[in-house]
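Field log, afternoon session.

UNIT: design team B
ACTIVITY: writing a sequence onto a fixed backbone
BACKBONE:
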């Protein structure tokens, strides 16, 4: 794990995604096993984070007050932008201005099990009804197991996900994708290890030069302090963050990516009035930065916890 700075920052994220894929393709007949598998999924990720904690000093729980307003504000952005992406914002605004707050905040045009009457006619009804969420169906069929799953989901999305996702995105990606030239060289080096295209690329003169050079992505990650960011790194890391979510959540991912990159930069930036530099802050803190990833982990956890609460309060399961 210590051979490359990427290993400890990628492994928890990769393991979580692989096990999430297993959950997604689990047969409906085995749905009652999902809470158990989800517990194992989070448990393995937590073990990886703890086992290799000495390789990731930026993974802290340091709190900064900006985590609260950013976390709450991004909940609003995530929900509103999600409705806008789904083409529902105008209808929800009409319901809100008409005073029907519960209907406006809940699923449109009726809940995902189809238990409420259609408010806008059969055409909209057919076009906009979403598929039932797995946990919603589970709570309806097996209430005890379903709500156990919901409780585990709250713990996972508010306490586990922020740690490994911020370690991967706002540390690994934000630091490792700092400059366009070095990033593209690093991706080309990575391509030489891929099947089909890797072998002919490696045999070419360009591929041989790439193989002889040190790993560009690892070098950027090692040399970039926690919190340092370029415009290219913010865009690239946010793009990766988007691609790990569904298309409906992409506008919310952009909002979160920009705000959380800004938060990790602001809370770790060197204070010029004290004569600090990025290098001095990094050296004094043992590589963790002034706050490390703590504030952005708190902000991410607050957003996710509020999103869980929104789902339960207004029965709109698509945000899970």
């Amino acid at each position: 794990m210590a051979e490359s700075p990427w290993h400890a920052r990628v492994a928890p994220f990769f393991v979580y995604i692989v096990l999430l894929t297993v959950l997604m393709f689990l047969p409906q007949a085995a749905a009652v096993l999902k809470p158990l598998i989800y517990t194992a999924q989070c448990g393995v990720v937590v073990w990886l984070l703890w086992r290799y904690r000495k390789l990731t000093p930026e993974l802290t729980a340091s709190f900064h007050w900006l985590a609260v307003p950013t976390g709450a504000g991004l909940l609003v952005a995530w929900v509103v932008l999600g409705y806008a992406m789904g083409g529902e914002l105008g209808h929800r605004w009409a319901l809100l201005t008409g005073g029907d707050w519960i209907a406006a905040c809940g699923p449109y045009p009726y809940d995902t099990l189809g238990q409420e009457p259609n408010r806008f006619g059969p055409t909209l009804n057919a076009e906009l009804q979403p598929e039932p969420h797995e946990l919603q169906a589970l709570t309806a069929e097996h209430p005890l197991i379903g709500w156990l799953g919901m409780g585990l989901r709250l713990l996972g999305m508010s306490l586990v996900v922020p740690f490994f996702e911020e370690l991967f995105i706002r540390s690994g990606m934000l630091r490792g994708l700092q400059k366009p030239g070095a990033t593209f060289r690093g991706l080309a080096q990575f391509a030489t290890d891929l099947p089909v295209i890797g072998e002919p690329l490696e045999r070419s003169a360009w591929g041989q030069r790439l193989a002889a050079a040190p790993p560009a992505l690892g070098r950027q990650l090692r040399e970039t302090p926690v919190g340092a960011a370029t415009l290219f790194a913010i865009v690239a890391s946010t793009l990766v963050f988007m691609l790990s979510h569904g298309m409906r959540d992409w506008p919310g991912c952009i909002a979160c990516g920009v705000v959380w990159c800004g938060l990790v930069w602001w809370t770790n930036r060197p204070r010029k009035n004290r004569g600090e530099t990025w290098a001095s802050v990094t050296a004094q803190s043992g590589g963790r930065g002034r706050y490390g990833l703590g504030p952005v982990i708190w902000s991410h956890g607050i957003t996710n916890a509020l999103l869980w609460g929104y789902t339960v309060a207004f029965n709109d399961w698509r945000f899970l």
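LOG NOTE: The first helix runs from residue 7 to 24.
NEXT ACTIVITY: expression trials, pending approval
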